[in-house]
Amino acid sequence: MAEREPNSVTISVCSLDEHKQRLAAAFRGEEQGNYIEFPTVEVLWKVLTAKRWEILRAMTGQDEMSIREVARRVGRDVKAVHGDVQGMLSAGLLDKTANGNVIFPYDEVHVDFKLRAA
């Protein structure tokens, strides 16, 4: 049996022009892959705090789970994890399932951004 390719996502920082170029290429039928994009590194770090990275790590490659299960896996209080999950849902990092659970539907994450001189 052939091994399936991992479902991968790239978390990146890109300008509006770069985003538009990727979108135009997708409309031309060019495969783009999965991206979650942020306008600046500062916004990326504001949304993806260290605690939220722990949540992503715990959810990567897993099935949907309840917030209580996410909290158990990261060893944190349910209320605090709930707040982080809500922020991640708002940012488009996580998806909510029909039965109210949450899912990060990727097997692996690649982070891509450049630091340029001011």
Q: What does the secondary structure layout of this molecule look like, with pairings?
A:
Layout: E1 8-13, H1 16-27, E2 34-38, H2 41-47, H3 50-59, H4 67-74, H5 78-90, E3 95-96, E4 102-103, E5 108-112
Parallel strand pairs: 1-2, 1-5
Antiparallel strand pairs: 3-4
Structure description:
The protein contains five helices and five strands; from the N terminus they run E-H-E-H-H-H-H-E-E-E. It has helices at residues 16-27, 41-47, 50-59, 67-74, 78-90, and strands spanning 8-13, 34-38, 95-96, 102-103, 108-112. The longest helix is centred in the last third of the chain and has 13 residues, at 78-90. The N and C termini lie far apart (51 Å). The mean pLDDT is 90.
